[in-house]
Amino acid sequence: MAIYTPSDETGYETVRDVPVKVRVFRAVDASMFSVDAAGLVYDGSVHEPAVSSAVVPEGSYSVEYRDNVNAGEVAAVVSGSGFYSGSCELKFAIAKATPDYEAPAPVEAAYGQTLSDVALPKGFSWQAGNYIALPGHWATGSGGWWTRMTTAAIL
After folding, report:
1. Partners of 142 in the beta sheet?
2. Could you report the per-residue pLDDT of 62-83, keeping only the tens digit for each?
3. How confident is the model at residue 87 (pLDDT cuts 50, 70, 90)?
4. CA-to-CA distance for 121 and 69, rounded, in angstroms?
């Protein structure tokens, strides 16, 4: 309840018990929300994980997503409505996917040639280390990873 005091108190009474409605707003912040982004992996599609709150009632906020297709850190922007105001950003991650690939066909190296001199198909490269091919030795690789290193001497 409020009191109204007129500017001309000589001719008017002060009015007591005036009902006044007060609308209280609360600003939203990231600590009020959680985003269920576990297990998100890049697949070329839009990712919109569920956003929830134990504090802000459903219907008192809206969610928009930003940069939510590619792998990396992305965001959900929560905007308050009703008795909640402002907006906040919830960061979450989309993990990189493991690409589909076929291991390259066997390649050949001349005696004394380093692996870095041996060409691989597009998308493949030799891992760290500079190896020299030795006669009579062989190796197999899978996805660019050498699983048996009896073929070369490490420099």
Report:
1. 145
2. 999 999 999 999 999 999 999 9
3. very high
4. 29
Q: What is the pTM of this model?
A: 0.63
Return the closest-CA partner of residue 120 out of 102, 140, 104. Answer: 104
Short-list 55, 129, 117, CA closest to 88: 55
Q: What are phi and psi of 11, to 5 degrees?
A: -105, -10
CA–CA separation, 107 and 119 (whole Å): 8
Give the Cα separation of 44 and 47 in Å (integer): 9
